[in-house]
Amino acid sequence: MEKTRCLIIGSGPAGYTAGIYTGRADLKPILFEGEQPGGQLTITTEIENFPGYPEGIGGTEMMDDLRRQAMRFGCDVRTGYIRDIDLSKRPFVAKDDHGKEVEAETVIVATGATARWIGLESEQKYYGEGVSACATCDGPFYKGQTVAVVGGGDTACEEANYLSTLCAKVYLVHRRDELRASKAMQHRVLTNPKIEMCWNSRVSEILGTPLDGVTGVELTDTKTGEKCQKEVTGVFVAIGHKPATDFLRGQLKLNEQGYIEIQHPTSATSVAGVFAAGDVCDPNYRQAVMAAAGGCRAAMDVERFLQEN
Ligand code: NAP
Questions:
Q1: Does domain 2-114+241-308 fall into CATH 3.30.420.40?
Q2: CB-CB contact of 146 with 168 (8 Å)
Q3: Is 138 a catalytic residue?
């Protein structure tokens, strides 16, 4: 069976950065890119807030740079994904999508998380053309404009508040008549003069044209079924994220939402020799630069672990 000192699962900024560090440490890591090579950033348009790119950079281009940087240091980057893994004893045995097994002394899980979507065809059609799942990433493109945020949790409220500092007006669209967010967050939203609540409302259609991108949303009252339209140029969907941890269920300690629990300030998980990095263990920040930092931390934790064991 093939053997490696470090198996990296996932290929966003966390996975590739872990590949760069473990590669430079001569651990000859094997990295499986997963079902979406490059991760979430490959489906965004431009990244303006990753340090080192003063003019911004395309998500795919940045991931390609990170990938090549990892390969330069001997990281064995493979197309494919890990179907299942046995973490009950070390070395761990992982099986790829072709059924081939790899034995790993350590594992870095960097499988990320994906945004939950409303499920409209128009939502996917205008993704990156007015539809976004990250206000921190895309908000600055909507300066002075009117946008809608969908959701009633802390993320939706935080995004609505942040967007209100940039935009002329923000509609916060929530399917019930009560927010799920913390009381403090609710207070900030409800007293913000730039935020208008659309209670008991669901987005039933995202309106737009191929030339202009998003031009509005159609809302349907969840109680009466009545419809109305709002003119907006951006729609920020903030109805939660789903970490890619299903294949680890029952083997690693996960929190209620399925994120991997790590032993802060390290990247150690509940299983010795298994480390986590990026969005898969971070429901709060979800930023590429944080994921990259997490990849660095996990790689350094792996090095230390291998020295001590
Ligand atoms: P969340 O708490 O699960 O809230 C998701 C929201 O989206 C809910 O209001 C839900 O409505 C709504 N929703 C779900 N599916 C929907 C659908 N198909 N259509 C329309 N609306 C839908 O998720 P989150 O806000 O991303 O927060 C995740 C976790 O991170 C939470 O524990 C949160 O407290 C934490 N967080 C904390 C902070 C902070 O403290 N600064 C910031 C961000 C997140 P219902 O309410 O009707 O279910």
A1: no
A2: yes
A3: yes
